[in-house]
From TrEMBL, chains C, D:
It comes from Haloechinothrix salitolerans. It comes from the Bacteria. InterPro entries: Aromatic_CoA_ox/epox, Ferritin-like, Ferritin-like_SF, PaaA, PaaA_PaaC. The gene is paaA. It holds the Pfam family PaaA_PaaC. This is 1,2-phenylacetyl-CoA epoxidase subunit PaaA.
Amino acid sequence: GNDLASYCLMLGDDALIMSHRLQQWCTRAPELEDEVALANIGLDLLGQARLLLTRAGKAGTAMPASAGAAVADRPEDALAFFRDEHEFRNIRLAELSSHEPVDFALVIAQLLVFATWRLALLRRLTDSRDPVLAAIAAKGVKEVTYHRDYAAQWTVRLGDGTDYSHRRMQSGLDAVWPYVGELFDTHPVERALADVAVDPAMSRTEFDDVLTQVCSAATLTVPDIPPLAGVSGRKGRDGVHTEEMGFLLAEMQAVARAHPEATW
Amino acid sequence: GNDLASYCLMLGDDALIMSHRLQQWCTRAPELEDEVALANIGLDLLGQARLLLTRAGKAGTAMPASAGAAVADRPEDALAFFRDEHEFRNIRLAELSSHEPVDFALVIAQLLVFATWRLALLRRLTDSRDPVLAAIAAKGVKEVTYHRDYAAQWTVRLGDGTDYSHRRMQSGLDAVWPYVGELFDTHPVERALADVAVDPAMSRTEFDDVLTQVCSAATLTVPDIPPLAGVSGRKGRDGVHTEEMGFLLAEMQAVARAHPEATW
Amino acid sequence: MTTTESLETHFERTIEADQRIEPRDWVPEKYRATLIRQIAQHAHSEIIGMQPEGNWITRAPSLRRKAILLAKVQDEAGHGLYLYSATETLGADRGDLTERLISGKQKYSSIFNYPTLTFADVGVIGWLVDGAAICNQVPLCRCSYGPYARAMIRICKEESFHQRQGYELLMTMMRGTAAQREMVQEATNRWWWPSLMMFGPPDGDSPNTAQSMAWKIKRHTNDELRQRFVDMTVPQAEALGVTLPDPDLRWNAERGSYDFGEIDWSEFKEVLRGNGPCNAQRVAHRKRAHDEGAWVREAAAAHARKHREAA
Amino acid sequence: MTTTESLETHFERTIEADQRIEPRDWVPEKYRATLIRQIAQHAHSEIIGMQPEGNWITRAPSLRRKAILLAKVQDEAGHGLYLYSATETLGADRGDLTERLISGKQKYSSIFNYPTLTFADVGVIGWLVDGAAICNQVPLCRCSYGPYARAMIRICKEESFHQRQGYELLMTMMRGTAAQREMVQEATNRWWWPSLMMFGPPDGDSPNTAQSMAWKIKRHTNDELRQRFVDMTVPQAEALGVTLPDPDLRWNAERGSYDFGEIDWSEFKEVLRGNGPCNAQRVAHRKRAHDEGAWVREAAAAHARKHREAA
């Protein structure tokens, strides 16, 4: 039904937008090994986005009217390139821009939080009654475990590296922290899809435990910063995004929208 | 005829794209006075762009096919928002991005070169046989004189300020210099429009004199850096731009293109 | 002591006679401090307020709207400049006030801690936010402190112009496509309640109002101004064809005013405490611009010094 | 002296017998220097070559093409890594080579000094640039230096894959809209001549070729490889339906090869001298990434030190 479609959009958009932010790091990483790793993580998330948006299409998400005929049989592209900002359902954390000005500590903090949270969700989702979601989750668990470990290793290296890197890493975590609260809000769609969706609120303890451990190994402080408000309570999952989102979509969608009748 | 339309596009696109780069400085200037000044210059150039694109439309520029019905009676918007990159005729200097990473010396160098060159052109253009172009030029001369003076004053302040600002200002000039050569290439359209268009090559000496004077007052060196090549000789005036141009247009055109049937 | 007393008497008589206090006049320290704080907060609001609107300049979908928006944001920088100058007549320093802004020691209007999400927001900010600002500011044109009053006269004139331009954009959009009309309605939904909060807490919770009114800095209470704004805006919404997001909004013939629903003051307090959707972003952006401009300001100062020494 | 002579004899015999030189083997200094320079230049080309293609990842118009492009650019980073490792077996240091790249002391393939202007460029780079690279590199799989030869085997395999993907994108675009077909033709026009220049100057102007061939680092002359590329590519262009921008291009039945027009070597030399459309931009971008990564690399080193000391 429609709730399932919405749920797939949520998880798919999280991956799509976070992948975009990692794509923007391409040719900007501090070492070639990180160039490879960040691209790899971006690719994994892009793969998850494709599966989830395709699933959203099959589950009955309405295709955007502006998507040309050629796109009709590729719902993943219709949804990625022809939805407007308020139709995206990702959490706002994924929108945070870290590449301009270049801030490696910020992308690591963003990825640490994102992957720790997503891994907890996907693990529970492997038991979903929806077999497609369960399979996507099972594949994703392996991938996101690596993402989390990569981010955790860098968090420790930077936190427990030089004085300067320690300060940078702590600032990165502090900058990301306001976006954490939203990750664990239970959305009505998640509540409606018992046994199919997972309730993110259930994973908060696990998340806090991991972050506490990583920060401790990194000699960093888990931030104590209140969550970013929504607009009249509406946040990313409700289609209300940060001001960065419009610029992100303008770039991502420009070529596809210039050629609505094209196939690629 | 068509040459006149092309010529109006050239001068209009120069102003439009340079104005965009100044718009991006909004809320980023080092002082409120500069906030006001940069916005002012951006507004003047935007005004020139509107007049010139409107003139290009009247002179017979074909309207882009993707421009919706609503745009048909506003050629300036059809041309600004619905042309593709290769249809823009501006010199590449205007595309240079200076706001991310923020570089005040770079925008000042860019503006100094742009305004000195444009002022020389517009002065000659006041004698154009085309009365509309002559009138636009007459208005523009007053505006661009101020733009040049503003940029020259900052060039002197930064060049003859601190050691650090001296280095930054010299780097700014050096970064801009490869884009200078193209400004004085005579385009076939300019050659074809004798008495209507002006030949930019005629203004090179005047330009060099001004730059030499300003650099001398600023204790800076006029750079000796060869001009940026085109692609098989094709440059901005031929629709071959820098890699920054696509991102600029994606941002500038996103809203207009999302609503091709709208009026605003 | 006797001098102070006579100065104080002179000050009070000037206020009472509805005459203007000028920079050369003696004023009580608390009057000075209250005014500096209020004018600085107003200046900061102009400067921070450039961000939500500035966000759309490069994406404005017509060149005419782009020029209008750029000119408007430029005006706001200009307003900031006058207002900082007005604080300087009271002995404040612009650099110092900027430090207070970016260190979070001084506030600016909370309304600018909401994001601008579509181009319709540009119109709605003109209509509602500038509209509310005008309601607040028109009485300030009669403020007892001369330089502030005169700055407000100029600012109010420009704000009215901005407000009409915002409303006109919305009118055009409402005559446009279905998607445009939806954008306007949706933006109205987001900005309506924050606009009402611009008048500050209800009179019962506004401890400084009485003193400010006695000094004729302020001329009306928060609730009076809020009611005036609602009464002015409801017919404009009707003319526009948008619905204001308040089911309790209705004409009260007895009062000759519109009744309206309860404001969510907990949201107001959260935003005021720094936890709105954009507080951190707005201040960080201003701080970054200021920090990245430091070398430029230093260079200008160094150049001016050389120039003076040479002269 | 005698030892050196016998080492030299051993080296020459190994080369003559078409056997591989391995890191433990003695080699003449000039062989080592030539190889380090060539492999480093190749590594630099992979890294700089990420930029023109990376430019389109965030704008790729389908998610499938986005994934393919991101994977390709990632492969290039991987190729850079193998190749820098191969130089390390010859005693070079990656950090040192990176310094030489960003200070302009070492070159990379000039082809990457052209801009990518439309999404069709992604396909054309795969087809023509990777195609030319493969022509150049396949013979290197038999290079006398073992680690380089083995790296080339892996790299060539991946490059062929990329080349097919690029060609397939162009095929899809040529079956698409008129605008897409125009984009492909226009990109072909821009990349054709620079691709031919990838094989280096004509044999008469290539002084190092003889020594490199004697050492079996190189197996064919520049002109031989260029001809092979043209002969391979012309039928592909026909199958695609694009015109190669050379009026002198025609089949020569006598030679069993395509004749083609004069290359503009003055353009080649300008780009090589640093005056191409993107030389400064490519190196500045790499330098900026390197500089901005310095604190991260320092932190990693500091952390590793602490960790070692604690162990």
